[in-house]
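Check these lines:
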Amino acid sequence: MSPTTPDPTPHDPYAALRIPDFRRYITARALFSVATQIQGVVVSWQIFKLTNDPLALGLIGLAEAIPSITVSLYAGHVADSVRRKRIVVPAVMVLFLCAVTLWWLAHPALAGVLAGGRLHLDALHATVVWPLYLVIFVSGIARGFMGPALFSFMPQLLPNRGVLPNAVTWSSTTWQASAVLGPAIGGLLLHRSVEFAYGVDMVMEGLALLFFISIASRELPPIEGERLTLSESILSGIKFIFSNQLVLAALSLDMFAVLFGGAVALLPFFAENILHGGPDAFGYLRAAPAVGSVLMAVFLTFSPLKKGAGRKMLWAVAGFGAATVAFALSTNFYLSMFLLFLTGVFDSVSVIVRQTLVHTYTPEYMKGRVSAVNSIFIGSSNEIGAFESGTAAKLIGTVPSVVFGGLMTMLVVAITSWKADQLRKLEMGAGKK
């Protein structure tokens, strides 16, 4: 069928949701995503209140990125060598135990354990800062293994590749919807107490674990070609991506946009010192990008991107950078929230195009290794971007650092548009070549 021939099959926006195991997967992912978003809000607010230092916020991202990057390539090899469910369930179990530990560390009863009742509560909390980073470090290892396994497990739940674009969109929509609820819930729970918020996070991660366990396991896809040594297998994901200009361009564009353009890590500083709000304002600001993302993702579920998808992705990332610059310069809470909403709208387009490309162009038996490289490009760039934002804020000031990041994002778009002609000319309706 040529790209100009009308598709005789009506588009079913609920096709993936009609599959029972995919519904379980989406439910588990929604619970887990809400829980981790709550956890992210509470950890960042707790550490900021303890240190009042934007660099300390950046270190949160670094503490998670270092272990995640370190294990990612090997985790990708494991995801293509072991049934994916056997990796997902233990990884989620470790993350659940990390949530339990965060709850325990925040509990007032810890005073008697750490200080024999002699320390004031504020002094007690100060002793908890470094253990928080340690828990984040351990969670980074678990996420490093979970990411490739979860990415490659999802397509195995589908009866055919025709459902894949719809499944990718629903997966993105669900994650973004969870990201809307998570920060808002986290901000509201902080009014009760830090330990109560961690308790909710712990319960939700436990429920997510039960749903992941309920999904039937799947055999590994058959391996094509010659069997590789361990080192060859680990590096094969990198070789695949660098041999495909389209996938490489999409990943690079998203990576640099996230690396330079993210202001989320510094939101506690903006919420309190520039916009003069409290934890509830912080929660709303954290939720604003996700609101934009989920609305755009829902729109794309019913009106999939086809014509000019590559150009739209480039314009979306440029818009993300411009909205980031404007946010940095805003001193009005509602304008700032709207600009963050726009960053989410633009980011959703980029995410869905990138994920669809990676799923479509990657053989099933290599998806774990390619996803591992994808997680280094994108997932870890969130954390490294948080560290970059915190470091730049320390060196040149918080507002100038976010302005610089947004401008760099637009520069990356210009270079990618010039160099990557395949992405610029991409038509999603044309299918895999």
